[in-house]
Design brief:
Order of helices and strands: HHHHHHHHHHEEH
Shape: globular
Strand content: under 5%
Largest sheet: 2 strands, antiparallel
Number of strands: 2
Distance between the termini: 14 Å
Length: about 325
């Protein structure tokens, strides 16, 4: 079976598996990778960029190598190749868990239970929930849905289309390392520098594709383009900026502004300043937009894989 068909069937099966099953409560492969990366960190950690770069190479390189070995091992079997791609896709995408967590918080806010929403918010993002009121929680959820659509779905599909199973596992490994050590805390400012920069590079194509697809699939294409062009570059993240700005414009809401991480206050630029404030019902709208973007990304990934295969032959 041609590689483009293997990816098409396997990725579709993996997305369907995510839709039907979501993430397992225990024994998730990404969690296993996180534990392995933490064990490597305990051995290698020094307050030095070079040791952090070695940590990135060992962990991300290990995921790439595992994917390459597994893909090569099943290559003679069409069925096994599709199954491996399906399992890898299911393991690295997280659209259903993202939607589920967002909706749990949304239901708590709809019921007026702000404390329950605060308790649940850390399952979705790293914001300080005690610093947020109901509207602030809703805005944090919409921003997290937008950013994680790129990180947890589209980016993986992009690299899967480019490099098959190694691309799927490698991208998810890089993204997980960034979440673990890529933030600017005193411990990781130097040690996590390589992971953060590699995540910026790996996430660049997926973020732009997410922004394009949010523009196409959202309710206000002109608003999405306007917000993307005007505000994305002012965001501190080169990849979250286009994604959050396009989602803001597509949904007609205003994102960004003041936020707090573990007691550290950040004043981020407002995205789509012409939009209205986020309301609780916008959480469901953002989840639905995220779903549409993920499905469109699968189609784009399959088309890209076919094009790459045709050019190679």
């Amino acid at each position: 079976m041609r590689a483009d068909r293997v990816f098409a069937y396997g990725a579709a099966a993996g997305l369907l598996g995510d839709l039907l099953l979501g993430d397992p409560r225990r024994g998730h492969p990404v969690a296993a990778f996180g534990r392995a990366a933490a064990a490597v960190e305990r051995v290698l950690w020094r307050d030095h960029r070079g040791w952090g770069a070695l940590h990135t190479v060992v962990c991300a390189g290990g995921a790439l190598a595992l994917g390459a070995v597994a893909e090569n091992a099943v290559r003679p079997s069409r069925t096994a190749s599709v199954a491996l791609t399906g399992v890898a896709t299911w393991a690295v995408v997280g659209g259903t868990s993202l939607a589920r967590e967002a909706r749990v918080i949304g239901r708590a806010l709809e019921a007026g239970d702000v404390e329950a929403a605060r308790e649940r918010l850390p399952h979705l993002c790293g914001r300080d929930p005690q610093a947020l009121d109901a509207d602030g929680i809703a805005r944090a959820v919409v921003e997290s849905v937008a950013e994680n659509t790129s990180d947890a779905v589209v980016g993986s599909l992009v690299w899967g289309a480019v490099a098959g199973v190694p691309g799927l596992l490698g991208f998810r490994a890089v993204n997980t390392l960034d979440a673990m050590v890529g933030h600017k805390s005193p411990r990781y400012r130097r040690y996590g520098w390589a992971s953060a920069r590699l995540d910026d590079v790996a996430g660049w194509p997926g973020a732009r594709l997410t922004a394009v697809l949010a523009t196409v699939a959202g309710g206000d294409p002109r608003g999405a383009v306007r917000a993307w062009r005007a505000d994305a570059g002012r965001h501190p993240s080169p990849n979250a900026g286009p994604v959050e700005a396009s989602f803001a414009g597509a949904l007609g809401v205003r994102l960004g502004g003041t936020l707090s991480y573990a007691g550290r206050v950040e004043h981020r630029p407002v995205l789509n300043g012409e939009g209205r404030s986020v309301e609780v019902q916008d959480i469901e709208r953002a989840v639905r937009l995220s779903r549409r973007v993920g499905l469109l990304a699968l189609g784009v990934g399959v088309a890209a894989r076919v094009a790459l295969k045709g050019r190679a032959s």
